[in-house]
Write a structure and sequence with these properties.
With about 130 residues, this protein is an alpha/beta fold. Helix content is about 40%, strand content about 15%. It has a single domain, classed as 3-Layer(aba) Sandwich (Rossmann fold). Helix 2 runs parallel beside helix 3.
Length: about 130
């Protein structure tokens, strides 16, 4: 299964851990955006690079069979865009699995409660359900 992991850029270490679990479970990543963390702020200072990054992340959400949104205490503005793209696909029936992983209460949105979103305490729990 092709999986995309959405999370705040500041949570890259958690994403790397999730990515390792995904590989161990025999799945593939739609995109490992943690490979290059050299550009994670002041996106308007490099518009072409930012545009390519944004396009790659949305493309990965659109190609994925499953999207996991990691709950953290970080702000994660971009993560909510990825959640929105995944919700659009899920409501149209073109995304098989959409889940939040962890305790969402720190940065909760009404969209976390959308009927298309499943909730799991850990990545291992979610992967076991696929």
């Amino acid at each position: 299964m092709l999986i995309y992991v959405a999370a705040p850029l500041e949570a890259a270490d958690l994403v790397r851990e999730a990515n390792a679990l995904i590989h161990e479970a025999g799945h593939e990543l739609a995109l490992d955006w943690t490979r290059d963390m050299s550009f994670v702020a002041k996106f308007s200072s490099q518009p072409e690079r930012s545009a390519a990054m944004a396009a790659g992340m949305i493309d990965a959400v659109l190609r994925a069979d499953a999207v996991a949104v990691l709950a953290t205490h970080h702000e994660g503005r971009g993560m909510f865009v990825e959640l929105g793209a995944a919700l659009a696909r899920a409501t149209q029936g073109s995304l098989a699995h959409l889940a939040t992983i962890g305790d969402i209460t720190a940065r909760e949105s009404v969209f976390h409660q959308h009927p298309s979103v499943e909730h799991f305490p850990t990545m291992t729990d979610w992967l076991g359900s696929l």
